Amino acid sequence: MLKEKKIIMGISGGIAAYKSCEIVRRLKKLGAQVIVVMTENAQKFITPLTLETLSENEVVTEMFPEKKVVGVRHVNLAQWADLILIAPATANMVGKIRAGIADDILTTVVISTKSPVLIAPSMNVNMWENPIFQENMEFLKNKGYMFIEPETGDLACGTGKGRLPEPETIVKQVVRLSTGKKDLEGKSILVTAGRTQEPLDPVRYLSNRSSGKTGYAIAEAAQKRGAKVTLISGPSDLRVPAEVNFIRVEKAKEMYSAVRSHFDKADALIMAAAVSDFVPSMVSQDKIKRKEEEILLKLKPSLDILKEMGKRKKKKILVGFSLETEDEIKNSKRKLVEKNLDLIVANNPNVPGAGFEVDTNQVILIDRRGRTEKLPLLLKKEVAEKVLDKVSALLKKARRG
Length: 401
Ligand SMILES: Cc1cc2nc3c(=O)[nH]c(=O)nc-3n(C[C@H](O)[C@H](O)[C@H](O)COP(=O)(O)O)c2cc1C
Prior knowledge:
By secondary structure, the chain is of the alpha/beta class. The protein folds into two domains: 6-178, 3-Layer(aba) Sandwich (Rossmann fold), CATH 3.40.50.1950; 188-400, CoaB-like (Rossmann fold), CATH 3.40.50.10300. The protein has helices at 19-29, 42-45, 48-55, 73-80, 91-99, 105-112, 125-129, 131-142, 167-178, 213-224, 252-263, 305-311, 328-338, 380-400, and strands at 6-11, 33-38, 83-89, 117-121, 146-147, 151-154, 159-163, 188-193, 198-199, 205-206, 228-233, 245-248, 268-271, 278-280, 299-301, 317-323, 343-347, 360-361, 363-367, 372-374, 378-379. Strands 12-11-8-13-16-17-19-20 form an eight-stranded mixed sheet, sandwiched between helices. The structure holds flavin mononucleotide.
């Protein structure tokens, strides 16, 4: 199942380090090539010899080994890996990755890689609940690092959340990540994400709260499913997914130009960006001065990118997002027709668990025939996969028709 997959198994100094032996054994049994990279503290819990025997590879423990190694080892390892798994990951390890610290071989490999990184934290419940640790984890999730949640149960000291899941569960996750569908192979997909910023004067702008999480998740998932992806993004702090053609824009007008120049080569356009509907009629060259009286901001409608692309879509698949706080199905259906879309993803930020800053969303998928599918509350990454399932089916249908 994991034949030809190259996995770096990172181990840090937690009590659950003993479970890493079983993880390595299972990965090997499924055909993966495994190189174990251990921190100095991990070696206090478990010996490299055991892992060397199980992985059938030299275990990497040092940044500057005495025995000369040809090439720059951390870079080679970082490029070699299809996936980096860290299990167990200590609170210290998560904190160091978040801070961009690279003071040993494992953290240096992690900072040097473009491959997916899957982190399985395990620790005492108080460490797990510590807001600094939680914030570190959230930060990394937003940058595209993936986490396996620990389980609740007996810990080395007391009970609570923090126990490393069983090796079987961790390996299942690795298999799921490594053997994903390749149903978008050969397709070119254009994705827009994030918000636009419309200057009012040299220091102020008009914008919205879109984080770009869904669009980035779509771009990343489409790339993993084999598509050639171009991601056009407004300002966002998110990590750019590996191996996508990334174009950064600011204003709605720039997003329009970027979409137009990449549209012809695309098989599908997924417009997840929250483009300003209105832009200032005039941009002041100088900072608008504070006054005692009211000032009137004059806005004009921006170019409707989707509608423009809808006019020239031919056999391309067009997907729009519709953010509505009332009558979402009715309004979204109207947009779908007006803009000549194949699919519209309707969402309401007022639904609990939906919205901008959170990692989850509840959406309704509406197709050209007016069929609606209300999805449960899902992670934005899961919403991305669902949208791509539809796009994949539509692309297949377009080829047949
Ligand atoms: C017996 C023992 C068990 C430990 N277990 C854990 C653990 O499960 N999770 C954790 O985050 N830290 C644990 N620690 C603390 C880490 O070993 C410590 O933070 C260390 O600096 C981690 O180093 P590393 O991340 O470079 O491997 C434990 C320490 C000891 C002495």
